[in-house]
Amino acid sequence: MNKITSISSLEHDFLVNVFDKTKDIKSNWTNLEQIGLGKTICLIFWEPSTRTKLSFEHAAKKLGFTVLDFSPDQSSIMKGESLEDTLKTLVALKVDGFVIRHPEDQVSKKIANLLPDNVFYINAGDGNHAHPTQAMLDIFTMGEIENDLTKLKITILGDVNHSRVIPSQLALLNKLSCHDVSFMGPKSMISEKFRPLIEDSSANCLTDRNILFVLRIQKERFKENDAVDEIDFVKKFQVNQEFLDRTGFKGHIMHPGPMNIGAEITTDVANSKNSVILSQVENGLYLRAALLSLIS
Ligand code: CP
């Protein structure tokens, strides 16, 4: 198995190996085995990224890979070259593996089919469909909070409908038998397939939850008729100190990033001792190194 398109395509044993390898890499970061020496990896990001792109680049270099940073808008794609011909060209240039982010839903399946068997591939986010490595790093981080994931009580707050992280996260939590997940926010952001739903932020409604997973409003993925009342959302659901006091939430705060400070979360909460947002970022580095080690 050397192509990661979505969580649903991954075996339970492989996921356990990824988490074990991530722990191992985290404790040996300064002295990693150079498994990438002689191999070349190409990063192709059609959409902006800070965490995913740079953590893959840093992890790959740390493992000894040569890293090619392909910028679609500076490439022959701008002259009309297709995705298929671009990938064929890069394989001919002796690229051994790809990390690709693309705005098209489910394009990861097409990419995996286009690439030869011996070329590895990791989906770094495709449209609204999937962001498997974000889900893995999030759940690795949850596992540092509570080793027995089945005990976790998670509430996901905000714009679930436009998130590609959440479908991957729910698939992974399900594979790991963590089933106590609820959602919080207005119905306009959270469709009926995501239930149970907490539609208001009333007194003590989050007292029993361990994890509050906060999402920004992902306007870049809005379709023509999508609309949210941002002012009302901020008033009712912004995760600030008053919200935490009112809802009784005392667990850990997570966010996949990037945050829109002052919208879904405030600086003081993002920086508080209960926030593990930067641990998520750091764990992303180790987890992506682990994945590269296992599939390259
Ligand atoms: N969470 C996430 O994918 O962040 P970036 O867009 O910065 O990579």
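^ phosphoric acid mono(formamide)ester complex. The pocket of phosphoric acid mono(formamide)ester is lined by residues 49-53, 125, 134, 256-258 (CB under 6 Å). The chain has a mean pLDDT of 96.
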